[in-house]
């Protein structure tokens, strides 16, 4: 079995250089990096990850706990987290909590026992003390948990943008479909900004709140169908996610309701599918890639013992397409 010394000798470099390539640390020319990787492949060299972890007191593994990878927003977010974590030499362990307390606790215990260097949390079902007592650094998404640093989009401004556009389009019977407002989520500020802006103009919106399984789409169509049947004069809808908005399009098509002719529709997130549906979806764009990059940068900083900002709020933009 080849050793790191064997790789160094064949590549014509020092053991230290091979170690730097393996750990993605220090300056190494691209030519040298490629040569070392080529020799490792030729010799079928496999580094001893346990030994490496012990020597540097780091596993170079990050835990990612999300509600569900099946939701396109979290799929895109996780994709970018992995991209930027990999650039810094980290690998990720991905966990689906399904917003279940028991599963989330099990995953946190698993990540802790595997000595991950840090965690990204986009699920928050446990008591605050459960997170505060963890030794690993944590960054949260759209969750404010005690004094743990977080990354989010400007949710309140997103709600304001949506309300202003529907008012501009002369909508007056407006509905808003959102997640569970009983949960302590920064994303609920979308509702705050939206409702406050409409009320300032004398418009009282219909707010439909989903149940605890907000990321499970099975019941969306029933909720939307009931809303439209009970309020046939609705002329504007703002949903708290693009997936919800796409379900509105599906239900309206089935009922022969024209979008945007009869109902103007706005989503939130700007996932990749938003521009592919018909009509193309007007939405509030979260900078998903930038949020992931910022989160990886912050968590890496915490792991290195650096001081970082607790509140990291990135701007949103209105992307107007065919649904308005």
From TrEMBL:
Residues 2-56 form the HTH lacI-type domain. Signal peptide: none annotated. Residues 3-50 form the HTH cro/C1-type domain. PROSITE patterns: HTH_CROC1, HTH_LACI_1, HTH_LACI_2. The keyword DNA-binding applies. Keywords: DNA-binding, Repressor, Transcription, Transcription regulation. Pfam families: LacI (PF00356), Peripla_BP_3 (PF13377). GO terms for molecular function: DNA-binding transcription factor activity; transcription cis-regulatory region binding. This is LacI family transcriptional regulator.
